[in-house]
Write a structure and sequence with these properties.
single chain, 10 strands, hydrolase, polysaccharide degradation, two-stranded antiparallel sheet, GH, carbohydrate metabolism, alpha/beta, TIM Barrel, glycosidase
């Protein structure tokens, strides 16, 4: 019995020895505590004096082997049930090109091995892009789901859950894009005769990453509008993947709403020369959006107002432009009108596509989700220029994210946000970045709108600092040993599965990250045990008026955040290696 208790309560390696020594110290200070899982709670609250960690492993074992130890079952079960309420599921994004451009699942043997490794690490599931440019490549409504079916079967056999992204954008041209998967060829051919189907900047440069929202309701695609194409694609997915949906394999449908699948304008395309931390450019100069703006301005009694021509270029700074500079155009009535129109068009775009997604998956036991980008550079400047060009009208006195959250609430959708791993101290000072404050603002807004909020890292990280920042954001006020924490994210998706992640030390740290996200609990396959049970998708609620959406722009103080995660990853080997390097440097 004693050895079972020790094995049940510790992890391998150096961490195990330290925790056993901690338990020895706790026994001395709290002799009334005899059950291991109750000791575990004391360990997590940190109510012991670490200076007393001195007893040997033998002494610890002898403590556990005494007849005073009470039967563990009643206490352990109660403790585990309470701690499971703090369990944040972890998903891992699969490689972008897991299905080739030729619509072939070429890496089945390698993927089978990697999925097994993820499952053994305690990972709950994986996320995969289901590329429009692959599935409907042959012609309008000519869908071929065969390769994705093979992949889904493998995921199912691996015992993992699946998040599927309806990827209506091109892969290639964004940070981290290692492969190129264009839009369907027959769509690009329409663009050859009508290039205004693509987002366009002031200079007239077209971006073929995705279709402009200006053609959402234009029947330009063999008689179909853009939204009708997206809707037909999602309906076909449901019909062809019904077995996986009914089996509970697919738990999330993330609906692509723009570049990189995010609800934003493609304002900072590296394919057109943008580099961090450029402010980006507005993307509303195709003929369709220009006509819509002219109509909106005329209806507002200002027919002379035009789209901005003074907002600079991709790699400018805010202060170098007339629009974003001190007392800039963005503060004038004309500037406010434009920014309201520009951001509202984006919200309405997401709203209409999500309404179609809701109808396509109505009754399925899945969650809908939408992703919003973490535009953290220039966040601490007055004009928030990079956010404004992306379509997020966010200023000190105006919340640009809570209206998006309110829109998502009518579709019962998860709000998925990025850049969870980033810390202010890691960013360039001259770019006035504020990833920590941005995450705090956006997540708080989502929770205030009663949404389930999820997130992911923006860039691949393998270090404990990035992981600990994600752990902090997942449970900003820490775990609650009595049950559900005050604030908790619905899920975390790690970007992304790679050979680098699976390297021995990287994967060792990642497994510890998963364990901490699970609140030190074992992998739990039963979603209901941690309050994630998924019921049939209900019909979207009535459309929210623009007045009600704009009411959500009123800024509110974000919820308080802890300074650091209470369940942290301690990279003992990394700390030791750094210490050795410093010692050697002293003698050089």
């Amino acid at each position: 019995m004693a050895s079972n208790l020790i094995l049940y309560s510790t992890q391998g390696g150096l961490g195990a020895k330290v925790r056993l020594q901690v338990y020895s110290s706790i026994f001395q200070q709290f002799p009334g505590i005899r059950n291991v899982k109750r000791i575990e709670a004391v360990w997590q609250t940190g109510s012991f004096n670490s200076a007393d960690i001195s007893k040997s492993l033998k002494a610890v074992a002898s403590k556990f082997s005494t007849a005073e130890i009470l039967p563990k079952a009643p206490f352990a079960e109660t403790y585990n049930q309470r701690m499971l309420a703090n369990y944040v599921p972890v998903y891992v994004m699969l490689p972008l090109g897991v299905i080739s451009n030729e619509n072939v699942f070429e890496t089945k043997t390698v993927m089978e091995k990697q999925l097994k490794e993820l499952r053994e690490a305690g990972v709950d599931g994986v996320m995969v892009d289901v590329w429009w440019g692959i599935v409907e490549s042959k012609g309008p409504k000519q869908y071929d789901w065969s390769a994705y079916k093979s992949l889904f079967e493998l995921v199912q056999e691996s015992g993992l859950k699946l998040q599927a992204i309806m990827s209506f954008h091109k892969c290639g041209g964004n940070v981290g894009d290692e492969v190129t998967i264009p839009l369907p060829k027959w769509v690009l051919e329409i663009g050859e005769t009508d290039p205004d189907i693509f987002y366009t900047n002031l200079k007239g440069n077209r971006n073929e990453e995705c279709l402009t929202l200006g053609v959402d309701n234009q029947p330009l695609f063999h008689g179909r509008t853009a939204i009708q194409m997206y809707s037909d694609y999602m309906k076909s997915f449901r019909e062809n993947m019904s077995d996986f949906l009914e089996a509970g394999l697919i738990i999330d449908i993330e609906v692509g709403l723009g570049p990189a699948g995010e609800l934003r304008y493609p304002s900072y395309p590296s394919s057109q020369g943008w580099v961090f931390p450029g402010i980006g450019e507005f993307q509303c100069y195709d003929k369709y959006l220009k006509a819509e703006f002219k109509e909106a301005a005329t209806n507002a009694g200002q027919p002379e107002w035009e789209l901005p021509d003074n907002a600079g270029e991709y790699n400018d700074t805010p202060g170098s432009t007339e629009f974003f500079g001190l007392n800039g155009t963005y503060l004038t009535e004309q500037g406010k009108f434009f920014l309201t129109w520009y951001s509202n068009k984006l919200i309405n775009h997401g709203d209409e596509i999500l309404d179609e997604a809701n109808k396509a998956f109505l009754g399925c036991k899945v969650k809908l989700a939408a992703k919003v980008a973490g535009i953290h550079w220039w966040y601490k400047s007055d004009s928030h220029a990079a956010e404004l060009t992306s379509g997020y009208y966010n200023l000190k006195d105006r919340d640009g994210y809570r209206p998006i959250a309110r829109m998502l609430s009518r579709h019962h959708a998860i709000f998925n946000f990025t850049c969870l791993e980033m810390r202010n101290s890691e960013q360039r000072a001259d770019a006035k970045c504020g990833p920590q404050e941005l995450v705090q603002q956006v997540l708080s807004g989502g929770w205030r709108e009663q949404l389930e909020v999820a997130g992911e890292n923006a860039l691949s990280r393998y270090d404990c600092y990035g992981y600990n920042q994600m752990l902090l954001n997942a449970r900003p006020n820490g775990v609650n040993s009595e049950g559900v924490p005050k604030l908790m994210m619905f899920g975390i998706t790690y970007l992304r599965l790679s050979d680098e992640l699976l390297k021995e030390n990287n994967f060792k740290i990642f497994k510890e990250f998963v364990k901490k996200m699970h609140a030190d609990q074992d992998y739990c396959p039963d979603l209901g045990k941690y309050n994630h049970e998924i019921g049939p998708l209900e019909r979207s609620k009535p459309k929210i008026s623009m007045e009600d959406l704009l009411e959500a722009t009123k800024p509110m103080e974000p919820f308080p955040w802890g300074k650091e995660a209470d369940m942290k990853i301690d990279d003992f080997e990394g700390v030791l290696a750094n210490l050795v390097r410093k010692l050697f440097s002293m003698f050089k």
